[in-house]
Amino acid sequence: MRNAQRFEALVLPHLDAGYNLARWLLRNEAAAEDATHDASVRALRYFDSFRGEAARPWFLGIVRNTCFDYLAKQRGLLEMGGFDDDALDSLQVTAHHSYPDPAEALSNLQLRQQLDDAIAALVPTLREVIVLREMENLDYAEIAKITAAPIGTVMSRLSRARSLLRERLRDPVARST
Amino acid sequence: MNEEQLSTLIREQATRHLASARLKAQIQTAVVLTKATAQERARPGSIAHHWTHWLSRLPFEWQQLSAGFACGVVFSVAAGALLYQLHAHQISPRLDVQMVAAHVQSMKVGPLYAVASTDQHTVKPWFQGKLDFAPTVVKLDAAGFNLVGGRIDQVANAPVAALVYTRNQHIINVFTRPDSGRPQPPERAQVKGFNLVAWGDGQMHYWVTSDVNAVDLDAFVTAWQSAGKSR
Questions:
Q1: Contact list, B34 vs chain A (CB under 8 Å)
Q2: pLDDT per residue over A89-116, tens digit each?
Q3: For residue A38, what is the nearest residue in chain B, using CA coordinates?
Q4: Residues contacting residue B17 through CB under 8 Å, at least 6 positions apart
Q5: Distance, CA of A69 to CA of B102 (rounded, Å)
Q6: B24: which chain A residues are within 8 Å (Cβ-Cβ)?
Q7: Are A108 and B24 within 8 A, CB to CB?
Q8: Is A136 exposed, middle or buried (0-12, 13-18, 19+ CB in 10 A)?
Q9: Which residues of chain B have a CB within 8 Å of the CB of A40?
Q10: Would the CA dihedral through A95, A101, A102, A106 be positive or negative?
């Protein structure tokens, strides 16, 4: 535990980022708190294997794995186990109407709700790249490390996730009915 | 809507969930306690083992030489420790500084408390099973100090109970640690503009630190001591 003093300084500042990822992946406040707590204890246990790389992606990787363990337990691997990147195209919805600019058409509160719903509706592997890229501002290499996927896969997931979100935001009425 | 607009939209509008102060405090407590137990387990030293192993592989004359050297080291360390004891007889200034640092840390980085309650009968049981001592928790509303919560901190490699009181806008941290020494009357100190009072009742040692003025902090200590006696 020689590195233990460093743990607090290096890892604890990223609790907000870790919690945000867990909250988005698990979509439940209590589960996200449990996962963040578990991940922190795991991170402390593995801290001896930490080689001084960037602490944020390292910790978020542990949070991410903890969350996927939770999801696997919750859903018996249904949602993420049989995941196939190519099958995603079939999930895309077709737009019936198109609003020129949703940001102007809706009040901020409605927009936030719609945006949150649209992100929450993505499958976990797409949801996490959106959270990591757009909310936590991580680069492709860091996201690849966290999600244990090649950079190419990260980029294609990100573009799929973005186009799905664009579809859903363009046509919120059709989504909610 | 293009990709850039979508990015901006998510950045500005999507909910970024923040960890609650309570969660942060729970995690900090878990970290402190894990560290404390790990240190206890690691104590029957592997370093000493390595050294003796290394020494036993040296030629005999070298072993004698190193034994002589080791005696010298032991003597100077003992002399140093004695001097240090004489010099820093009362409260270790290093500990003062660390207590004030813990006080600053609790306000700057947080968490200020892991259990939030104005009721001492909620705060005190929270420490059960987390510490190997039962810290004193008293209600001091009558004296104008309001209990707001408690947490566990790590100071000088040992877990301490921290209680948080407020006086107007000021935050007061009370750190408690078991102490088997003689009772010590309150001693005042100032560290970087913070006031600190430390005393011991023979069983526990207390450090109270805050940015309130010295008179108010003395009033706090007096209130604490009389509340402690009447308990």
A1: 41, 44-45
A2: 444 444 344 445 555 555 667 888 889 9
A3: B27
A4: A19, A20, A23, A24, A32
A5: 35
A6: 12, 15
A7: no
A8: buried
A9: 27, 30-31
A10: negative
The dihedrals phi and psi of B18, each to the nearest 5 degrees, come to: -105, 145
In tens digits, what is the pLDDT along chain A, a chain of 177 residues? 455 667 888 888 999 999 999 999 999 999 999 999 999 989 988 888 788 788 999 999 999 999 999 988 877 645 444 444 544 444 444 434 444 555 555 566 788 888 999 999 999 999 999 999 999 999 999 999 999 999 999 999 999 999 999 998 886 544 444
Structure tokens at B73: 């080291």
Q: What is the largest CA-CA distance in chain A?
A: 61
A44 alpha-carbon distance from chain centroid: 22
Contact call for residues B134 and B231 (beta carbons, < 8 A): no
Displacement of CA A113 from its chain's centroid (Å): 17
Angle, vertex CA B101, rays to CA B108 and CA B147, nearest 5: 65
| Tokens coding B110 | 């947080």
Partner residues linked to B171 by β-bridges: B166
Which positions ≥6 away from B201 have C-beta within 8 Å?
B183, B228
What pTM value is reported for the model?
A: 0.57
User: Six-digit token pair at B74?
Assistant: 């032991």
Q: Which residue is it, tokens 């137990």?
A: B37
Give the distance from residue A2's alpha carbon to the nearest chain B alpha carbon, in angstroms: 9
CA distances from B46 to A47, B125, B156 (A): 19, 37, 22
Distance between A11 CA and the closest CA of chain B, angstroms: 11
